[in-house]
């Protein structure tokens, strides 16, 4: 994303300058570390010789150098933060460029579509075509319904005929029911007799 | 920087010398041409593995002549300076050595126990693995920075590093820029 041609930009040179400053501070810190170690060693040697004053002097120098080290630490942190911020800003720039590209592409697509007016016109035409189709369907539906009506009437007649044929079968069913009732009455009388005998 | 200061071999450093180092004839120029070629090849291999072990990028021949590389004190044998120079010429033809300042002669040489092409691939992989493509890095940062600690790139000779970076430049993978004493490189 973004025109990353293989060449060095002004921002790259600025970043290089900051990183070089960082490197110089880094080297300075290393030099001071060597000095502080050296002063500690001197102090140890002086104490071994019993020369307390010089040992104290060496430790004072060490203390001073350590304070310089602390200052360069702060400066180094500042430089690194600045470098990081610049690099992040470059990333943000790329993101912004990406958004611009995306927007531009989207606008081109909209232009190809003809814009909102064109879409509205198209939607209107579509609606008209749908309405026209509906009328056509209605007309065809009207004609077909005549045929359907005839079929429905024929079906009705067929059903009526079936119902008439079923009627004669009804009387045949009555006698079995009557016979069942007579049997039930006989059983009831038989139950009464045992009761009288028991009494 | 040069070879390590003279010490008895295998005492202070644990570099294991090859078998031929303990043969007296190895330190004497051979008259038979086939044997001479084999001898030079073995010396070349020894110099490369010694330099690799001690991470020697830059070798002063006059200083090295007195180091345990060319002097076997147990055998009381040493490679004569003229013979050392001949071996270096042999290595130069093979691309394993380059004279500082260019040219075909000199006392100080860069020893390519890893060739600039090989270094270039190493550096490219490092940049890929650390996600630093498109970034600007200083030469100092690559050689001395905390980022490269634990990699072979840390502690490289700057001269060799720049040669390796120039390989990447030719491939269109990097661009070197900045002042002479504070160079930077951008990777693509």
TrEMBL record, chain A:
Known Gene3D superfamilies for this protein? ESAT-6-like (1.10.287.1060)
Where is this protein chiefly located? membrane
Q: Where in the cell is it found?
A: Endosome membrane
| Keywords, in A-Z order | Endosome, Membrane, Protein transport, Transport
Origin superkingdom: Eukaryota
The family annotation for this protein states:
Belongs to the SNF7 family.
This chain belongs to which protein, by name?
Charged multivesicular body protein 6
Q: Which organism is it from?
A: Fusarium kuroshium
Q: What is the lineage of its organism?
A: Eukaryota, Fungi, Dikarya, Ascomycota, Pezizomycotina
From TrEMBL, chain B:
Do you know which Pfam families this protein is assigned to?
ESCRT-II
Name where it's found: Cytoplasm
Where is it mainly found? cytoplasm
The keyword Cytoplasm appears for this protein: yes
Query: Keyword annotations for this protein?
Result: Cytoplasm, Protein transport, Transport
GO terms of molecular function: protein homodimerization activity; structural molecule activity
Which positions are tagged coiled coil? Answer: none
A single GO CC term for this protein reads: ESCRT II complex
In which domain of life is the source organism classified? Eukaryota
Please name the GO terms of the biological process aspect recorded for this protein, alphabetically.
macroautophagy; protein transport to vacuole involved in ubiquitin-dependent protein catabolic process via the multivesicular body sorting pathway
State the PANTHER family in the record.
VACUOLAR PROTEIN SORTING-ASSOCIATED PROTEIN VPS25 (PTHR13149), VACUOLAR PROTEIN-SORTING-ASSOCIATED PROTEIN 25 (PTHR13149:SF0)
- What family classification does the UniProt entry report for this protein? Belongs to the VPS25 family.
What is the designated name of this protein? Answer: Vacuolar protein-sorting-associated protein 25
Q: Which organism is it from?
A: Fusarium kuroshium
